[in-house]
Amino acid sequence: MKGHQPGRGRCAGCAVGDPLDRDLTAGVPLAQLAKKYKISGQSLGAHKRNHWNPALVAAHRKQELEGTALSSLAEINEAIRHMKAILGASVKAGLVGQALSSNRELRQNLEFLARLTGELNDKPDLVVNIAMTSEWSRIRTVMLTTLMKFPDACRAVSDELAKLDKEAA
Ligand SMILES: [Zn+2]
Fold it and tell me: Is the pTM for the entire model greater than 0.90?
């Protein structure tokens, strides 16, 4: 949302809005912008002096980035739901290879989710150890408990998990 500033209403530059303000921030020459947006250089100059606000443009950009992060968040959550369903089904069916690969994928998704959430919370220094999250240990417990019914599969999975733990250490 743009803040209301005196005289913004009738300005040709304001009518263009964000794209123009972004070009001004990028330092595109006025002559070039005049051609691009079909606005006189004089009007552009007046808009730049009176209405263009680099701080506001920076704020918009931040909002856009947050929007992108939020839609990635929705996507990754969707992917996690899928991987959980696939993992559950393959464990039930005793499909070890499939269980392991969906498990790996799930783990990656959870790691990505944790990073993304950390970014959104504005804590760039946050180090998330996915192995320590309750979500991960819950999945791991459910998986191994179910796999008890398939001793060979169970052994194979716990071997792989042990390898992963070694890699992570
Ligand atoms: Zn203006």
Answer: no
